């Protein structure tokens, strides 16, 4: 099988070939586990799909918190491009709750600020923000030049906290840190753990309370999950961070259980909260009907209360009855198709389960910036060697806070794990795939083209930059980051919307029906260098 993979890459130079072949695996499931290289530097010039550390911190993790002001400290470009480009939806949940999501705050650093330093300008900007909006929490997110000129954003944050009695977090999340968005996730997690979680005292009112970690409410996904969870009777203390707020997140340590949706972007907080507050985390996936039912049942098993289990089964039955007819119709249209999917760091796994609900097999799956544990499972972590880039990102250690106890003993947890409850662990994407399927890390356009040509998937899920090239090549492509402005795709109702959207796309594949004019007649005529 490695031969097939090597043929795909034979246009690369020897060095590039050697590097890229370690990031592409055709799954064998033989005695030796399938491995893949990940979280290393992209090859310069290869046109990676990855973004930067600032994108991971500002755009992904802290950006969606509606009642916090997120300031981009740097030139205007980074603020402008990260203004509303990710589809994390938010609305005020009560009269007067602040929602700063539509705004873009930036220090607009110009040449003199770069030369003489930008701390004063940042502080003046914050004074202005306090006068106009008086938020309870401010995040300062640094872009590349800030680290180069040495502005001390942490010191500014401390001064602001003292002056205004608010929470302020200074993030050194300069774009060049680490190798991708992933570094920014880690930095953002550290700041939330240090300065936000644990600050509140509002205890949950009901018996079963949870936080949802790694759910960013893209296209309203988080709202669909909350609808179902509340119907069962769970109290959602906070969501990290889609439609989330400082006001709720500061009480997160008082919840009973952490659910982890996107493992890649938030596993640090899940682990630290387990150590500090004894809160277990459960890897869930609310993308896909089967996956949603499984996640809800694991939650009920964790709480181990017959009343809750009964209510869970009632809600599942009700929800399934509501969508059954539509699901069957779309399945009849989609069954037997194949898919490829290249997204950031967790959707390429989650969406395979939703596609399976419709009888679609995912033959090619790739991540931009996932780590080996997202592919191979968390048991691989001790084997991962830290390189210079990962050592650059601070690893914070926390200790058990006084007064907080583990919810279950280690033996009880082991028993639940043995019964299939995915507690404090994640099995990774590869386990849900089949022999012969292709897994790619840090994919690029050239490889995407090669793979599509060879394996001919009926539909390819991708991002902004790659979507149109794929589509113009005649292969149906859906944007998996913003859902092409549709959604939600999560939970029960989301599955139907997803089925409808991809059925529409597959049955109106306009680009496959047109012949480009240059295929039938020459577009240019002339002579070169005096010849014909
Ligand atoms: Fe997690 Fe995300 Fe993703 Fe991600 Fe992203 Fe995103 Fe994504 Mo775009 S947090 S890893 S950094 S699920 S923004 S909501 S769609 S690449 S697969
Ligand atoms: C990011 C955000 C992004 C970009 C999507 C894309 C998103 O990584 O900075 O480039 O297609 O989901 O908006 O992943």
From TrEMBL:
Checking Gene3D superfamilies in the record gives:
Nitrogenase MoFe cofactor biosynthesis protein NifE, C-terminal (3.40.50.12380), Nitrogenase molybdenum iron protein domain (3.40.50.1980)
Give the E.C. number(s).
Answer: 1.18.6.1
Question: Which UniProt key words apply to this protein?
Answer: ATP-binding, Iron, Iron-sulfur, Metal-binding, Nitrogen fixation, Nucleotide-binding, Oxidoreductase
Cofactors, names only: [8Fe-7S] cluster
Which chemical reaction does it catalyze?
A: N2 + 8 reduced [2Fe-2S]-[ferredoxin] + 16 ATP + 16 H2O = H2 + 8 oxidized [2Fe-2S]-[ferredoxin] + 2 NH4(+) + 16 ADP + 16 phosphate + 6 H(+)
Q: Superkingdom of this entry's organism?
A: Bacteria
Record keyword Oxidoreductase present: yes
Name the Pfam families for this protein: Oxidored_nitro (PF00148)
Instruction: Check the record and name the InterPro entries matching this protein.
Output: Nase/OxRdtase_comp1, Nase_comp1_asu, Nase_comp1_CS
Keyword Transit peptide in record: no
Name a GO molecular-function annotation: nitrogenase activity
Query: What residue stretches are annotated with the Nitrogenase/oxidoreductase component domain?
Result: 52-505
Per UniProt, the enzyme's principal EC class comes to oxidoreductase
Instruction: Give the matching PANTHER family.
Output: NITROGENASE MOLYBDENUM-IRON PROTEIN ALPHA CHAIN (PTHR43457:SF1)
NCBIfam families found in the cross-reference section: N2-ase-Ialpha (TIGR01862)
Q: Which family does it belong to?
A: Belongs to the NifD/NifK/NifE/NifN family.
Query: What is the protein named?
Result: Nitrogenase protein alpha chain
């Amino acid at each position: 099988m490695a031969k097939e993979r090597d043929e795909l890459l034979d246009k690369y130079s020897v060095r590039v070939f050697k590097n890229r072949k370690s990031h592409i695996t055709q799954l064998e499931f033989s005695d030796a586990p399938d491995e893949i290289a990940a979280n290393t530097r992209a090859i310069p010039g290869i046109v990676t799909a990855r973004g930067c550390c600032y994108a991971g911190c500002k755009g992904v993790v802290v950006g969606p918190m509606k009642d916090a002001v997120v300031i981009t400290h740097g030139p205007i470009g980074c603020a402008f491009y990260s203004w509303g480009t990710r589809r994390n939806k938010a609305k005020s949940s009560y009269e007067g709750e602040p929602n700063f999501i539509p705004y873009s705050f930036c220090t607009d650093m110009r040449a003199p600020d770069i030369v003489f330093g930008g701390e004063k300008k940042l502080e003046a900007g914050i004074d202005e923000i306090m006068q106009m909006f008086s938020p309870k929490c401010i995040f300062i997110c640094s872009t590349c030049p800030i680290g180069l000129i040495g502005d001390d954003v942490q010191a500014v944050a401390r001064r602001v906290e003292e002056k205004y009695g608010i929470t302020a977090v200074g993030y050194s999340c300069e774009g060049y840190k680490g190798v991708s968005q992933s570094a920014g996730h880690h930095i953002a997690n550290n700041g939330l753990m240090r300065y936000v979680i644990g600050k509140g005292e509002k205890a949950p009112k009901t018996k079963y309370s949870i936080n949802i970690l790694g759910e960013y409410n893209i296209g309203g996904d988080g709202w669909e999950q909350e609808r179902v969870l509340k119907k069962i009777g769970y109290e959602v203390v906070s969501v990290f961070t889609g439609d989330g707020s400082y006001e709720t997140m500061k009480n997160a340590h008082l919840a009973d259980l952490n659910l982890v949706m996107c493992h890649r972007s938030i596993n640090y907080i899940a682990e630290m909260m387990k150590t500090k507050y004894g809160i277990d985390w459960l890897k869930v996936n609310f993308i896909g009907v089967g996956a949603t039912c499984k996640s809800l049942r694991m939650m009920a098993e964790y709480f181990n209360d017959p009343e809750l289990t009964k209510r869970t089964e009632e809600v599942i039955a009700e929800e399934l009855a509501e969508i059954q007819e539509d699901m069957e119709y779309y399945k009849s249209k989609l069954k037997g198709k194949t898919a490829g999917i290249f997204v950031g760091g967790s959707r390429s796994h989650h969406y395979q389960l939703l596609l399976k609900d419709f009888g679609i097999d995912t033959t090619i799956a790739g991540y931009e910036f996932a780590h080996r544990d997202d592919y191979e499972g968390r048991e691989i972590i001790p084997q991962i060697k830290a390189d210079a880039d990962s050592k650059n990102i601070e690893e914070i250690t926390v200790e058990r806070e006084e007064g907080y106890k583990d919810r279950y003993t280690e033996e009880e947890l082991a028993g639940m794990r043995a019964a299939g409850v995915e507690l404090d662990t994640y099995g990774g994407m590869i386990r849900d795939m089949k022999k012969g399927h292709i897994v790619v890390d840090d994919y690029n356009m050239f490889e995407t083209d090669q793979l599509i040509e060879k394996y001919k998937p009926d539909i390819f899920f991708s991002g902004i930059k790659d979507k149109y090239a794929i589509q113009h090549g005649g292969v149906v492509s859906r944007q998996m980051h913003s859902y092409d402005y549709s959604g939600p795709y999560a939970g029960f109702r989301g599955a139907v919307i997803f089925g409808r959207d991809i059925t529409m796309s597959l049955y109106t594949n306009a680009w496959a029906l047109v012949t480009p004019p240059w295929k039938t007649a020459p577009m240019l005529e002339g002579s070169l260098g005096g010849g014909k």
